[in-house]
Amino acid sequence: MAYDETAVKAVIAPHLDAAGLDLEQVKINNAGTKSSIAVVVDSDAGPTLDELADVARTLSAAVDDADEVFGAQAFTLEVTTPGAERPLTEPRHWRRARGRQAAIELADGTNLLARIGPLTDDGPDGGTTVTVVLPGAKGAAPTTRDLDLAEVAAAAVRVEFRRPNPKEMELSGITPGRVESGTEPEDLTGEGAGAAQRNED
């Protein structure tokens, strides 16, 4: 059976809303008896492993009651978080990644490696803007730049294996040594957040 993404989202979204989680993505692998559905969720505080397990059980029960969407074929249901190098496609993603380093491609083809600063909703054209911190060249002090999110073609968080520059962190509005809300410890080591799995019979 081929699973329809829109129908799957319609079943699971209300349960995620009730749990205070954002549905970031549904990844469907239609492969017969080896089919799988991965539900990617997030929140401002970052879901804990216990919360992921609870949501997985809730979604499993919802799946059992939605045969018209999921049928009787066995598949694996997984609930997980976006992981360390998460894409930044919504304003909430930028807000949650404040203080993190990101690879940013602008609509004009410019590529930036910058640290994410504060987000504001009062841009010059009424849009959302983000302040990013650009590292200084050859020992120069870092600088800031305001970007309208409409200028961004693609962006994703990058894992850092060195201690962040304290001045960059200060300019991003993060006190050095402090983990911003929504940044899981697993992300800081380059590991994705945990997941709960269930085989649907």
From TrEMBL:
InterPro entries, per database record: Ribosome_maturation_RimP, RimP_N, RimP_N_sf
GO process terms (BP): ribosomal small subunit assembly; translation
Subcellular location, principal: cytoplasm
Lineage top rank: taxon: Bacteria
Region annotated Disordered, chain positions: 161-201
UniProt biased composition (Basic and acidic residues): 161-170
SUPFAM superfamilies: YhbC-like, N-terminal domain
Record localization: Cytoplasm
Keywords: Cytoplasm, Ribosome biogenesis
Ribosome maturation factor RimP N-terminal domain residues: 12-85
Pfam families: RimP_N (PF02576)
HAMAP family: RimP
Its job: Required for maturation of 30S ribosomal subunits.
Family: Belongs to the RimP family.
UniProt-recorded name of the protein: Ribosome maturation factor RimP
Organism: Tsukamurella tyrosinosolvens
Chain's gene name: rimP
